[in-house]
TrEMBL record:
<dbReference type="Pfam" id="PF16984">
    <property type="entry name" value="Grp7_allergen"/>
</dbReference>
<protein>
    <submittedName>
        <fullName>Uncharacterized protein</fullName>
    </submittedName>
</protein>
<dbReference type="InterPro" id="IPR038602">
    <property type="entry name" value="Mite_allergen_7_sf"/>
</dbReference>
<dbReference type="InterPro" id="IPR020234">
    <property type="entry name" value="Mite_allergen_group-7"/>
</dbReference>
Length: 404
């Protein structure tokens, strides 16, 4: 293809993208709604969504949360969508309505337990009203369909309401459930809701990404979008590839400097505060109290951070370019060089270290010109998930049953 023909094809592609973009935007919105209808028809909304058990400490009280699940699987209703085919960016907002999480709590207070050996147990429901998700993704070509990468998803809600209920003994015998409520502006304002925020958002993010992936896959054929013109299809594919390559070069330079800075400033290893906690542990039907103490801990190998896919690039205006990328810390480790446990008249000490082989962070960077002066700023650096923990503990000895 001659240089003149290449220029003509690029101009034809530019005109085509401008022409089809509004219609494709509407098609994606309809496809997003159709996926929700398909899920309802297939009964997918009836499948329970569960969260792993968790616990937290508030002053001298240990609270365990178990049997956590969404009361109802959320429906994603798209409220707004903005598509930019020339920079392969998609921004959307969707409503989840009210999201409710229910479960069982058990609270152990050391001082109270020394007087009366009981635990406070009951049920709870967390209600997050008017939850919305703001989504920013980069689009890529997957055979003859669109796919996405580097999802930046931010959840917001109006308020959080926690309802607690527990059995209260009555004078005439028997029990009745007593209920109390707590209200807060943000999910992280209350210890109980803060304990479930990360796994809850990870679950919602996973469901939303699966929903969006299916909607994009069903939305349209890329070859049909290019009018089945091989030259236009090739030019479109080349444009997408060049966008990613240019973005990769910029982010790789940033990551090289980031690793160098972490190592040179000795921040590749961060300190964790020591732990001093009294806990109640159950083995079968037997409960016992223990004490856990540690020295200062550490988070290390931060310099093993790297991108795990191509960078997505958007240009909101001619003076500004935004880069979005998904990162992983390849060898993320958290641990304590010395811990001490006392329980059931026995004691032990040793070292514990946990490796998280599955983790992901979303990073967004903007570079541009302000009053003709270049600038770069970090817009977002957010942990999306951190799981698949491999825990190694030495020195448990007679208390090895705690590992269960």
């Amino acid at each position: 293809m001659s240089e003149e023909e290449s220029v003509d094809i690029e101009q034809e592609l530019d005109n085509l993208l401008t022409k089809v973009q509004p219609n494709l935007q509407d098609v994606i919105k309809r496809s997003f709604t159709n996926v929700a209808l398909q899920q309802t028809k297939n009964g997918e909304q009836k499948k329970p969504d569960t969260l792993e058990d968790t616990s937290y400490f508030a002053k001298n009280t240990q609270v365990n949360l178990s049997r956590l699940e969404l009361v109802k699987s959320p429906m994603f209703h798209m409220q707004a969508v903005s598509l930019d085919l020339k920079s392969m960016g998609l921004v959307l907002r969707c409503s989840l309505g009210e999201v409710n999480v229910k479960g069982i709590y058990s609270a152990f207070n050391e001082n109270l337990y020394n007087l009366i050996p009981v635990m406070s147990e009951g049920h709870f429901i967390v209600s997050l009203s008017n939850m919305t998700a703001d989504v920013n993704v980069g689009l890529f070509l997957d055979e003859d369909a669109f796919s996405f990468a580097n999802p930046g998803i931010q959840f917001t809600h109006d308020e959080v309401l926690v309802k607690l209920s527990w059995p209260s003994p009555q004078r005439n015998g028997g029990y009745e459930f007593t209920t109390t409520e707590q209200l807060a502006k943000h999910i992280d304002d209350l210890p109980l809701t803060a304990a479930i925020s990360l796994p809850l958002y990870a679950l919602l993010r996973q469901k939303l990404q699966r929903h969006l992936a299916q909607a994009l896959r069903q939305a349209t054929s890329v070859s049909d979008l290019m009018c089945c013109n091989p030259s236009l299809l090739e030019a479109f594919s080349d444009m997408v590839t060049k966008l990613a390559q240019n973005g990769n070069k910029v982010i790789d330079m940033v990551l090289i400097n980031m690793r160098r800075t972490l190592l040179q400033t000795c921040r590749e290893v961060l300190q964790l505060p020591p732990i001093h906690a009294t806990f109640l542990h159950k083995i079968g039907s037997v409960s016992f109290i223990g004490r856990l103490e540690t020295d200062t801990g550490w988070v290390k190998n931060l310099a093993t951070i790297n991108r795990i896919n191509d960078v997505s690039v958007t240009r909101p205006d001619p003076m500004k370019t935004c880069f979005h990328v998904t990162l992983r810390i390849k060898d993320l480790q958290i641990g304590y060089d010395e811990y001490r446990i006392k329980a059931m008249g026995a004691s032990c000490s040793g070292r514990l270290a946990a490796a998280f082989t599955s983790n992901a962070l979303h990073m967004a960077i903007t570079v541009g010109l302000a009053r003709w002066e270049p600038y770069a700023q970090l817009d977002d650096l957010r942990l999306q998930h951190c799981d698949a923990m491999d825990l190694h503990v030495t020195g448990l000895g007679p208390l090895s049953g705690l590992a269960g």
